[in-house]
């Protein structure tokens, strides 16, 4: 299992993105290996919003539908306990709110987090951060 940051999925879904090919290759390798992908449920609005800002609302909706079709993707609900851990990580490591939620999922499950965001280096001593 590995937590996947929204930016990896955005790059995967936007062919013009600078990291597109890298993210496509990474996802194919993970799925071929039978890896379970994990993300907080906020993945859907994050990716949908990012895609619609680059294109149009319909593209954002299509992106969210594509994510829902990935059978190996498990969305974790953001409950009060996870939000509390995210808040602590945000304060302790200076993470943005949404980033802290992804970090909290990785921390609570004791698994790695894959991201294109260098800000996650702030929690590298606590969570294994990897690039796609």
Describe this entry's structure for a reader.
- The chain is of the alpha/beta class and 132 residues long.
- Helices cover 55% and strands 12% of the residues.
- The longest helix is centred in the middle third of the chain and has 14 residues.
- It is built from six helices and five strands; from the N terminus they run βααβααβααββ.
- It has one domain: 5'-nuclease (Rossmann fold).
- It comes from Candidatus Promineifilum breve.
- One of its GO terms (molecular function) is RNA nuclease activity.
- Its EC number is 3.1.-.-.
CATH fold group: Rossmann fold
Please state the structural category.
alpha/beta
Give the number of helices. 6
Output the radius of gyration: 14 Å
- Please name the CATH architecture: 3-Layer(aba) Sandwich
Detail the topology: elements first, then pairings.
Blueprint: E1 2-4, H1 6-13, H2 20-32, E2 37-40, H3 43-54, H4 57-68, E3 73-76, H5 80-93, H6 97-109, E4 112-114, E5 129-130
Parallel strand pairs: 1-2, 1-4, 2-3, 4-5
EC number: 3.1.-.-
Function: Toxic component of a toxin-antitoxin (TA) system. An RNase.
Cofactor: Mg(2+)
Give keywords:
about 130 residues, 6 helices, Rossmann fold, alpha/beta, globular, single chain
Short summary:
The chain is of the alpha/beta class.
């Amino acid at each position: 299992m590995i937590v996947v940051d929204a930016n990896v999925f955005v790059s995967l879904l936007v062919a013009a993105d600078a990291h597109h090919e890298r993210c496509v290759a990474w996802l194919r390798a993970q799925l071929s290996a039978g890896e379970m992908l994990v993300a907080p449920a906020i993945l859907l609005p994050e990716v949908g919003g990012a895609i619609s800002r680059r294109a149009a609302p319909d593209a954002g909706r299509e992106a969210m539908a594509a994510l829902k079709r990935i059978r190996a993707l498990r969305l974790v609900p953001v409950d009060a306990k996870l939000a509390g851990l995210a808040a602590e990580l945000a304060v302790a490591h200076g993470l943005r709110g949404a980033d802290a939620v992804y970090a909290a999922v990785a921390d609570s499950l004791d698994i790695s987090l894959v991201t294109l965001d260098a800000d996650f280096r702030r929690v590298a001593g606590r969570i294994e951060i990897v690039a796609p």
